[in-house]
Amino acid sequence: MSPAPATGIAPAPSAMRSVWGSPLYRGATVALFLSGLGTSAAAPQITLFLVDELHVSLTTAGLYYLTSITAPVAGYLVGARSDRTGRRLGLFRLCAVAGFLGWCAMALADQVWMPFVISAVVLAFAGGAASQLFAAVHDDLRATASPVADGVVSVVRMALTAGWIVGPVAGSLLATAAGPRAMLAATGLCTLAQILPMGLADARPAPPGAQDAAASPASAGRRVGVRRMLPLLAFTGLYVLVYAGEPIKYGYLTIYMHDDLRLPTAVSGAVIGIQPLIELILMPVAVVVARRTGMMRLMILGAAFGVGANLCFALTGSAAGMFAGQVLMGGVWGVFAGLGIIVAQRLLPEAVATASAVFMSSTAIASALGGLTGSLGVAVLGLPHVFLAPALYGLMATAGIAVMSRSGHAVG
Question: Does pTM surpass 0.85?
């Protein structure tokens, strides 16, 4: 007689199965891919649009990127409103519509001042859409007490990275074929299309019993004081130091490989393209390793990878050194891209939308810091020694994260 089949034993959950089986997680994944696709398609083309279509100087066009400084303020306002009302997806949809209107207005701009005002006032709020999705996913994971919560967040975050891989190529092809205005309008459509995969879904708030231990149920809906936000702000500041090397790298590494190292275009393209590939491979691995080592400890290693990457760019002077630097940089973002948003939310568990918005909008500050550092560094140090500056920033971040990991603010 054969034994009776076991009953009541569910298959072991996995992050991919959880994402596929949930309309919220699945919709957020597609929406973030569209967000990354649209934003990254426009980012490299903005300067060309300003110079060729509005006939501004290169110096004036470079000032456009300073308009992103308003994004952290807008992100904080959206996040604070979300934490008071709990309307994650309602605010997500409003931010997506704001992005659509902003990019379409940009495509129609015929005065020099218009892109600057549109970016600073309207598009600053568009960036809040992604942070609201992460907050909604966080709430649902808490409500269901998912055992693979970190893996789900990592998978959803990977979609944003995938969009950033495809977007620059798609944007370049579209701008060449149809012009930069058509490309900007397409970015607006991608931003609006984020709403479609979410359908009429609504996020459920985490019940008081499912909140993080650091969050008091009585704090729900209250404004979070600056003192309570200090750990989050410290971590975000360290993340800014890690990220500041990216605009320097994208601004000057290609020029260095072409003008100084005389690398063929195919080789320099492969150097640039290898980082996101390594990043995508390592993001799920980072979640598994972090369960054993702790997230902050793993981030110490990630920040140290950034130091090594920039030293490779500054000191090796060879194609192999450039590849090595980009592989290490893939390690940086394999750790920070997947785990950074999780750490930020755990540092402010009673206001996850605010935490998400503050952390995700900090890239604007990092871009401004990197742009200023690159401009001054090239004038003072020249190429390739300008990369010593982000190596120093990375060293500071490594030390800072090590201090946080030993303090009472370390997260699992």
Answer: no
